[in-house]
Design goal:
118 residues; alpha+beta; 5 helices; 3 strands; 59% helix; 15% strand; globular
Length: 118
C-alpha cells in the first residue's frame, strides 16, 4: 500500500467514524476536507444514507464537505461562501460552535481574532 493509498484509507476510516457520530447524535454538523475524487465517493455514500451535505471548493485539489442536519447545512449555505480563512471572527466563532469545538477555545480564538482586527 502506497503512502497515498494509506492516507486515503485513513481518511475513509475517519469519515465513517464521523458518520457514526452524526447518526448517534454526538455531532449535528461535520466538516471534512478531502480531494474531489474522494468527495464524489463520500457524497454517494451520504446520499445512500439519506444524509444531507454541502460541498465547497477550496482549490483544484481540495474540497470542504459539510454534512449533517438540514438546519445546520442551511446555516452553512448562508454564510460560508468564501474561504474559511476569510470568515469574520463572528462567522468563524459560529462555525466552530456548530462543529462542536470546545467553546472556551472558540471564545479565546474569537477574542484574539477581534483584537487583531482592531
Amino acid at each position: 500500500m502506497s503512502a497515498e493509498d494509506f492516507r486515503r484509507y485513513d481518511s475513509m476510516k475517519l469519515f465513517m467514524h464521523n458518520i457514526y457520530e452524526f447518526q448517534k447524535g454526538v455531532r449535528r454538523l461535520v466538516l471534512c476536507t478531502m480531494c474531489p475524487t474522494c468527495a464524489v465517493l463520500v457524497c454517494s455514500r451520504l446520499d445512500v444514507l439519506g444524509i444531507g451535505h454541502v460541498l465547497q471548493r477550496v482549490t483544484d485539489e481540495k474540497v470542504n464537505l459539510y454534512f449533517g442536519d438540514a438546519v445546520c447545512l442551511e446555516t452553512v449555505r448562508r454564510f460560508v461562501h468564501k474561504p474559511l480563512n476569510e470568515l469574520t471572527p463572528e462567522e468563524d466563532f459560529m462555525l466552530g460552535a456548530m462543529l462542536g469545538y470546545d467553546i472556551g477555545q472558540q471564545c479565546e480564538r474569537y477574542c484574539r481574532r477581534k483584537a487583531e482586527n482592531i
